[in-house]
Model the fold of this input.
Amino acid sequence: MLQQLIEQCQLGNGFAQRRLYDQYANRLFRIGLRYVRHDADAEEVLMNAFLKIFRSLHGFVYRDDKALEAWMKRVVTNEALQFLRAKQVLPLLTEVDPDDPPVTQTDLPDAHLDAEQIYDLIRQLPPGYRTVFNLYAIDGYSHREIAEQLCISENTSKSQLSKARALLQSWLTTNGYEHESRRTS
Amino acid sequence: MNTNPDERLDQRIRQVLDQLPDAPPPGSTFDAGRLWEQLRPELAAAPVVQPKRPAPVWWAVAAACMGLLLAGVWLYNAQTNQPTRVEAVHLPAPKPPDGPRPQVAQTPESNKPETVAQYRRQPERTQPGNNRIATRPVSEVGKAETPVSQSVEVPVFPASTPGGHVAQLTVPPSLTPLVAQRTSASAAVPAKRRFRVVHENELLTEEETYRIRNAGGGRADRFVRLGSGNGISAASDEGPTMLQLPLQRKQPQ
Done:
């Protein structure tokens, strides 16, 4: 089904392009919004991403639905990073910030997490933390890939990730989520 | 199994985010239809890039180049396999010898004007007794059974015939070539050396015999004498001039 849709899109069928867009627009919009926070920016990222997807779809070899979705997510991620670089947000990443509180290891929150609330908390992270956390914890990039993408060192990436986790944990605690250790004790 | 609490937090967050509905987040102003209206003109302006296919003209050019290459290879092979040809050329007639002229048989075809014939290079074949050079015409290549093959007989004098192979066949115009049937036996005779080493006494005997036979005075140009000729110095004054090459031993130093 999806393979035929891709084949029609590769032939330039506008109806097929619209169907593919409708199928993935909201999902990809959420991915863009995780990186850029504002709706208008996410729309710009999504539009550029779909333009790139449709223009480069002729070179895509369909294997399965997951591979197609992973490819489209990667295109959106790259467009978001490009947007952030254009907005000069990423150079604000610093390796050591003396004002930051020391990072402490935290326990896993309990299983009853609200997805929308977690999503909002991630969007509220500072740009540097958010970008590294999104790339590493959610989208599965390695620190080496993040360092190459953001033009930072791997230590910077690790530091930003650690701080993002700590901040997210504190917000989860503030929002009423208990740690497993506290709940079981 | 990953026991790192940080990794477990990441994994847990991923699982939670996978449960998100396929819709814009609550409170978002995102409208997919509106964005598509903005996207459609952009897609129409920039058509889908089709994979580049080689134009037919390039196929034609490639085929032409391949044809030229094959033709070149074929011509090169044809020229390489072409046999070496020896052309008969007319040279100025040498001075005929004073001695008895070898008999040359003439055939009716010999009255025809001479033509320059091309011959395939063959190892020289000589008849031991009658001084013939047997050649094979070009028309015989691949047709050994052809009965009309011709051969040219050229009188060869032993003293002036070089040893080894004859690279260029010289036909004096004064001599009418004998056109005769080539026998298969003549082609089968291997070439032999034309010089033999004889003792001085044997040479003297032959020379005396020749002098007696040609008492009228003929040039003894059949012999080449090597070594000192003290023994026949008196006789050589009477006969024709002889070539004498005295041998001198080098003094050991």
About this structure: Chain A has two domains: 2-87, 93-184. The mean pLDDT of chain A is 83. Residues 93-184 of chain A form a domain with the Arc Repressor Mutant, subunit A fold (CATH 1.10.10.10). The CA atoms of residues 32 and 42 of chain A lie 5 Å apart.
